[in-house]
Amino acid sequence: MRRIIDIHEEEVGRFPRAMLVDAEVAALNSSGKFDVDPPSPFNGYTYGIRSRGWIGQIPVGDKLFVRVSPKVPVGNLFRMLEIAYNLQSFRLFTGDIQVESLEDVYERIVSILARRVLDRARKGLYRNYIGEADELSYLRGRIEPFGTALNSIRGIPRIRCSYEEHSADIDDNRILMWTLNKVQQQALRQERVRIELDRARRALNGTVTLKQNTAKDCVNRLYHRLNYDYAPMHGLCRFILEQTGPHIERGDQSFIPFELNMPQLFETFVAEWLRINSPPGLSIRCQHKARLDSNLDMKIHVDILLCEDHSRRPIAVLDTKYKANVQPSDADIYQIAFYARELHVARAILVYPSMTANSFRMVHGKNIIIENLVFDIGAAPDVAGANFLEALNTSLARQIT
Questions:
Q1: Residue 79 sits in which domain range?
Q2: DSSP codes joined into one string, 49-62
């Protein structure tokens, strides 16, 4: 059985030196998800463990789980997920659903995915035409003369044919199959969810090939009237494949691995919220990449770029910072000033997740205005979003005047 230690996000958890073996300390350090303060006379010979932006139930080594509780209400956290992963249509956490823990929400998401897959399988899985080539005893599709002639010379009474098969064994369904298979290897607590998951897997089994997919396979896909309902299902698959812990063997019934990178979630949430609620006349480019020097192959990666609709001209660059800083650090200021100068925009905005951040505004160089705004993830999402949008509109209007 795995052991569990509990810490809180952005707090240092203290544990006696005897509580952790050397291999576990090494695994904590090498994971990249924790800072570890070694024992010394100054800390009472205890290990100090602090999360580096990760929350959830994170496996470390073979026998240890670190459970990191989020600093924001769990309900707020998963409403952020609804927006970041385009899951609003499922209404995951409304009504009488009490969101109490990461495990509760994870199993609810698995349940919704399993029921949606089962419902689609009953109606008929989406199918598409796939090019096939085979040697048949009858003509189907188009004859391949060269292959057929070779068979004739060899005395093989087979026709080499190229044809299209109307099949459900396509990537849209393989993503669902792979995700359900990954979840089936984990220790789901609720019997009802395990039954739903098994039924959904059996509905695809025999029709859809089990092929490895990643979270990246779930985005930028083509949807139309025949498969539009696959878009939110793939959103759920992306969430599960991104957030469930790796390397969990079948039969591990001790704990459900579940981990979220909060800086990444905050960035995706703010970008998607802005995309849905962008100020009039403006559009959003997320994860914008720009090449600075073709000879040196230098590139920058910008979280959010605000552009004018009619001209596509960038007018502001936004960089999310999942930090509790009272004031922006020098490094953050220099970074976003560099982005603004290279992209030729006069407005550079740092976005922080907490109201502890003091208001900050400065002019960099001749015409670049750098300031910070807050999208308060500790408040109700609708209220926080409205306040953030009002502050953003005020900031942009101030630039124009």
A1: 74-125+170-256
A2: EEESSEEEEEEETT
pLDDT grade for 255, boundaries at 50, 70 and 90: low
Q: In the listed set 256, 286, 310, which residue is the last one of a domain according to the structure? A: 256
Q: How many domains does the chain have?
A: 4
Q: How is 239-279 classified by DSSP, letter by letter?
A: HHHHHSPS-PPTT--S---EEEEHHHHHHHHHHHHHHHSPP
What is the pTM assigned to this prediction? 0.70
Q: Are residues 325 and 383 both part of a single domain?
A: yes
233 near 106, Cβ under 8 Å? no
Are 133 and 47 part of one and the same domain? Answer: no
Q: Across the strands, what pairs with 221? A: none
**Residue ranges with strand state E in 124-188:** 128-136, 142-143, 159-167
Do 156 and 184 share a domain, yes or no?
A: no
Dist CA 384 CA 387 (whole Å): 5
Give, in degrees to the nearest 5, the angle at Cα 124 between 214 and 186.
Answer: 40
Task: Tokens for 337, please give them.
Answer: 């000033």
pLDDT digits (tens, 9 = 90+) for 147-202: 888 888 888 888 888 877 778 999 999 999 999 998 888 778 788 889 999 999 99
For the domain that residue 332 is a member of, what is the CATH number?
Answer: 3.90.1570.30
Does residue 177 share a domain with residue 96? Answer: yes
Predicted confidence (pLDDT) per residue in 351-361, tens digit: 999 877 788 88
